[in-house]
Design brief:
The structure is a single chain. The chain has 12 helices and 12 strands. The chain is α/β, with parallel strands linked by helices. The strands form 2 sheets. Strands 2-1-3-4-5-11 form a 6-stranded parallel beta sheet, with helices on both faces. Strands 7-6-8-9-10-12 form a 6-stranded mixed beta sheet, sandwiched between helices. Strand 3, helix 4 and strand 4 form a beta-alpha-beta unit. Helix 3 runs parallel beside helix 4, helix 5 runs parallel beside helix 6 and helix 7 crosses helix 8. The longest helix has 29 residues.
Length: 333
């Protein structure tokens, strides 16, 4: 009799354990996903559009996002700390725009070892500790800018490339794509391509003034025909410096990324054209790719979000206006 009671007790315990595990597993399956989206910085207009795209994806896919990043795009330590804190918090996944293609390798590897997958977006990262890279083909974007510069210069002249900041993969690719394309034109000489503007408009103004003064004679003659810069703050810094040196409208200027100030400069003739990404699409696809992975779907290792040249010839087209003026408030309110 005792053996029967013991057997029944064991069976009951086993049934309780099985039922408890089933409940836990059901709860785990239904646990709401929380995706950390970490931009390079939070100052520039570009990142507001990325944030809106991420928020749109979160709403459509019924997940939560945490938007957190450093203030400025040269604060590597701050971004590393953000990644480490969110790994410790145990988020479901991380969507990261590394502001340094090397410095963020260890934090991303640590996230992987902690069982937290990472999608890299906007700017590349060395290594393979991530499941997908969602970004503009920045080298191709630079090539688009280089071809346009060659066209407006008629295939000849002297050109400057004012670089952004060291370690930024996205902007380095743009600059290299531009230089590779310009090299195909024997009549164009690159007279400077090793100077850096820094990550703010203010630092870009100072760097541009120092650089451009070398190409302006005491009599006011200008010894450069074209300038390319790979970001919005660098472009605006160049414009301000050119204004102070009486060079506006006398030198062809091609920029990258957009803002209301850049559109205004284009319409005034102070900017010849600029290449734009689709930042809302970058943020949207970054989150969507991560959610697809977490839900067991196959994702592409490289997703290109496209680049478009904006000039006075096409700026009023509907599709261009949608790129330049996305509905941010709908998703950021």
């Amino acid at each position: 009799m005792k053996s029967k009671l013991l057997f029944l007790s064991i069976v009951i315990c086993l049934l309780i354990c099985i039922q408890s595990c089933a409940k836990k597993n059901g709860t785990a399956e239904k646990k709401r996903l929380t995706i950390a989206v970490i931009p390079k910085g939070t100052i520039h207009e570009f990142w507001k559009s990325v944030n809106a795209g991420a928020a749109k994806a979160a709403s459509e896919l019924d997940v939560d996002i945490i938007w957190k990043g450093p203030l400025k795009e040269d604060d590597r330590e701050s971004q590393i700390t953000v990644v480490e804190n969110l790994v410790n918090r145990g988020v479901s996944g991380i969507v990261l725009a590394p502001l340094d293609d090397t410095a963020l390798r260890i934090p991303v590897a640590n996230a992987r070892w902690a069982g937290i997958p990472v999608v890299i977006f906007d700017s590349g990262l060395k290594g393979e500790d991530f499941i997908s890279y969602v970004a503009t083909d920045n080298f191709e974007g630079g090539r688009i800018a280089g071809k346009y510069m060659a066209d407006i210069l008629g295939g000849k002249g002297k050109v400057i490339v004012l670089r952004y900041t060291e370690g930024s993969d996205s902007t380095t690719q743009r600059e290299n794509g531009f230089l590779a394309t310009i090299a195909d034109f024997n009549g164009i000489e690159v007279v400077s391509s090793n100077q850096y503007a820094g990550v703010t408009t203010e630092s870009a103004i100072t760097a541009a003034e120092n650089l451009l003064s070398r190409f302006r004679t005491a009599e006011g003659d200008i010894k450069v025909d074209g300038i390319f810069c790979a970001t919005e703050p660098t472009t605006l810094g160049i414009i301000k410096a050119m204004e102070g040196l009486d060079m506006l409208g006398k030198v062809k200027l091609v920029g990258f990324d957009s803002s209301n100030k850049m559109v205004d400069a284009l319409q005034k003739g102070n900017l010849s054209g600029f290449v734009v990404q689709n930042p809302m699409e970058i943020g949207y696809l970054g989150v969507k790719t991560m959610v697809s992975h977490l839900r067991g779907q196959k994702v592409e290792h490289r997703i290109d979000t496209g680049a478009t040249l904006i000039t006075t010839a096409n700026i009023n087209e509907e599709k261009i206006q949608q790129l330049l003026k996305p509905d941010l408030e709908k998703w950021l309110k």
